[in-house]
């Protein structure tokens, strides 16, 4: 399972989310076709661009609750004061990806920042 975790500012576009996902996958030689889903914090459920990107990519969008984000927060690689303040987690994109990918998931690397969107890639199982 490979999950792209998304964090963003309010009002981003579907195109910005999709560009962030593609850019985050590129260093690992992956394409959107290799993804099992997108993930974000439940508090981002009103960000229509994330849902629209999932639909465009034909992927489910996992909305992760705060307690699940907290459970994996120590496994994240990035510490953002903005994310801590807004979501109570060091990185929405990293913790959402880890939580959605499963109990034994790991990040391929730290989140990447693409303008107003962050994206982190988590895998569960063998190296892709």
TrEMBL record:
Domain CobE/GbiG C-terminal, residue spans: 2-122
Organism placement in taxonomy: Bacteria, Pseudomonadati, Pseudomonadota, Alphaproteobacteria, Hyphomicrobiales
Signal peptide range: none
KW Hydrolase (keyword) present: yes
Protein keywords: Hydrolase
GO molecular function: cobalt-precorrin-5A acetaldehyde-lyase activity
Enzyme Commission code(s) on record: 3.7.1.12
Enzyme class label: hydrolase
UniProt-recorded name of the protein: Cobalt-precorrin 5A hydrolase
């Amino acid at each position: 399972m490979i999950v792209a975790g998304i964090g963003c500012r309010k009002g981003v576009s579907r195109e910005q989310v999709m560009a962030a996902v593609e850019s985050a996958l590129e260093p690992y030689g992956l394409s959107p076709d290799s993804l099992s889903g997108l993930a974000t914090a439940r508090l981002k459920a009103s960000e229509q661009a994330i849902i629209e990107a999932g639909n465009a990519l034909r992927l489910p969008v996992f909305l992760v609750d705060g307690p699940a984000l907290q459970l994996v927060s120590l496994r994240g690689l990035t510490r953002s004061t903005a994310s801590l303040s807004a979501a109570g987690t060091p990185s929405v994109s990293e913790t959402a990806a880890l939580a959605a990918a499963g109990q034994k998931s790991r990040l391929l690397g730290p989140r990447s920042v693409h303008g107003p969107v962050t994206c982190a890639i988590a895998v569960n199982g063998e190296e892709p």
